[in-house]
Specification:
With 215 residues, the protein is of the alpha+beta class. The protein has 3 helices and 12 strands.
Length: 215
């Protein structure tokens, strides 16, 4: 993967739109919000706001991760959704391809995480000062040298899914920070936010939106 920021120019893919919320399928390689410097100004938020001027940020996905992202279209919706993310009321489902095949079919990783300061933005496991982080995982398909897994984070730490899979000995394919050797030799990070469940800001009914798998 190229270290230079060269975001894809794919047209916006809207998964769901109503008076309160907008859900889109973020492409891999595009920042969720602007980075530092003019060369990192292009991002999903500015593209969204060009088409939907009232759109407000609720959460983020890593640059290299694709899939479902939700934006609020009113201040009320932003507060409502922000509280759901803060209180872990949303349910996020990711699909990843990882190096090797886990011996167990499913499990939970419970390892606290903290930024690896000299090597930021990398994160690391630290039992003394790390923040609690839990990820439920399940093998979906044995692909021989690799496996397809479903990941459901209970917490939302930075790089949580990447570090937790690495801790099992199965780094996510194409990961520029944590994969090495042949596991790194893919054209993208094989991590996709497949589904988001949330309570709709208008009426509170449970809502589920999915983005098709790109790999």
């Amino acid at each position: 993967m190229n270290d230079a920021y060269d975001p894809p120019q794919d047209p916006l893919v809207v998964l769901h739109e109503d008076a309160e919320v907008l859900l889109v399928d973020k492409p891999a390689g595009l920042l969720s919000v602007p980075g530092k410097g003019p060369e990192l100004a292009d991002c999903l938020l500015t593209r969204i706001q060009a088409a939907f001027p009232d759109a407000l940020l609720v959460h983020r996905l890593d640059r290299d991760t694709s899939g479902v992202m939700i934006f609020a279209l009113t201040p009320h919706a932003q507060r409502h959704l922000g509280l759901q993310f803060e209180k872990r009321m949303t349910k996020k489902t990711y699909v990843a391809r990882v190096w090797g095949v886990p011996q167990e079919k499913s499990g939970t990783v419970d390892l606290p995480l903290i930024v690896d300061w000299p090597n930021r933005p990398r994160q690391m496991v630290c039992h003394e000062t790390g923040k609690p982080a839990q990820t439920d995982w399940r093998v979906l398909k044995d692909e021989g040298d690799t496996a397809r897994v479903r990941l459901q984070p209970r917490t939302g730490r930075s790089h949580q899914l990447r570090v937790h899979m690495l801790s099992l000995g199965h780094p996510i394919l194409g990961d520029p920070f944590y994969a090495t050797g042949p596991a790194r030799g893919y054209d993208r990070l094989m991590l996709h936010s497949q589904e988001l469940r949330f309570n709709h800001p208008q009426g509170g009914h449970s809502t589920k939106v999915r983005a098709p798998l790109p790999f």
